Amino acid sequence: MTHTLPVRRGPRVLNDHLRIALDLTAARVPVLPLRAGKVPFGNCPDCRDNACGGRPNMKTAGTCACPRVCHGWAAATTDPAVITSPAWAPMWRTAAAVAFHPGGAGLTVVDLDDADAVAWARTTLPATRTVPTTRGEHWIYRGTMRSANAVRPSVDIKSTMSYARYLGPGTGTMTTLPDAVRALIVKEPRQARTAHVAMATPTQGGECPHRTPAYLERGITMAEQRITSADSAVHATVYRTFLAVLSTHGRCGCLTEAHITRLFAAAQAKGETVRHCTEAWANARTALGM
After folding, report:
1. How many Cβ atoms are within 10 Å of 257's Cβ, its own excluded?
2. Mean pLDDT computed over 52-65
3. Comparison of pLDDT for 22 and 273, the residue scoring more
4. Is 156 left (phi over 0), alpha (psi -120 to 50) or beta?
5. How many alpha carbons lie under 13 Å from residue 288 in its C-beta half-sphere?
């Protein structure tokens, strides 16, 4: 099905955000309200930290059927009965903007956040529907891909598992998502290099307490399992696990890049970025005075 973003129409009503949302749902574009700061409304108490199991359309198969606007982009819907329900009404009354889930509409938004990024796009990417933003432009293509931030300076990709503000219908003809955009996220080798920089300086000089290599292997395996089994607060779990590993194994020089690569890989499998892993590792070392 071909999706287009609707033209805003009709006189201004008491709740303009809700009217825009209804226009979008009529075009089968999943929507949700945003609060001040361009962020989704927070979870209700029952859903906080994914205690409810998460939404069915989230990264992990969830079971939550909460009627409120919980779980960010995963709450986006095309059902007008939901967005006009009493559960959503308080959010619309205080909403600062309307957001849509590009991937749910079969779309990808290239978010160009400054003039330099816009100039780059105009010389690099195929023309498509464009929407002015506060600092730059949204370029909207037909097709979906994995979302990613900072694929190049001031350029984010918003498609699956993401949301973008609705800032109007834009101008131009929407075209098919090109390989040039898909290629922006195919830079995984950079992750290995970033991890190498973070791991290349183990603290030496302490007395080694490990009688056998099996002791260290068991410690790394348990750390991987702790990260993998985290159902919520993943970032905090990763940091605490890194802290525990470093406090036990970080001063004798036994840790190798292979060991720490395993920890980074476990964290990334839970959704952590290399940047977050690197920061958590550095913060743990700092906390231990390494």
Report:
1. 15
2. 69
3. 22
4. beta
5. 21
pLDDT digits (tens, 9 = 90+) for 43-55: 888 887 777 877 7
Buried b (16+ CB within 10 A) or exposed e, 109-130: bbbbbeeebbebbeeebeebbb
Q: Report whether 196 contacts 279 (CB < 8 A).
A: no
* Higher-confidence position of 277 and 289: 277
Q: pLDDT digit string (tens) for 137-152?
A: 999 999 999 898 888 9
Please give the backbone phi and psi of residue 221, each rounded to the nearest 5 degrees, phi first: -60, -45
Biggest distance spanned by C-alpha atoms of the chain: 77
Q: Are 224 and 259 in contact (CB under 8 A)?
A: no
Integer distance in angstroms from the first to the last C-alpha of the chain? Answer: 56
Q: How far does Cα 10 stand from its chain's mean position?
A: 35
User: What local confidence, expressed as pLDDT, does residue 115 receive?
Assistant: 95
Contact present, 166 and 7 (Cβ < 8 Å): no
d(CA 141, CA 112) in angstroms, rounded, equals: 13
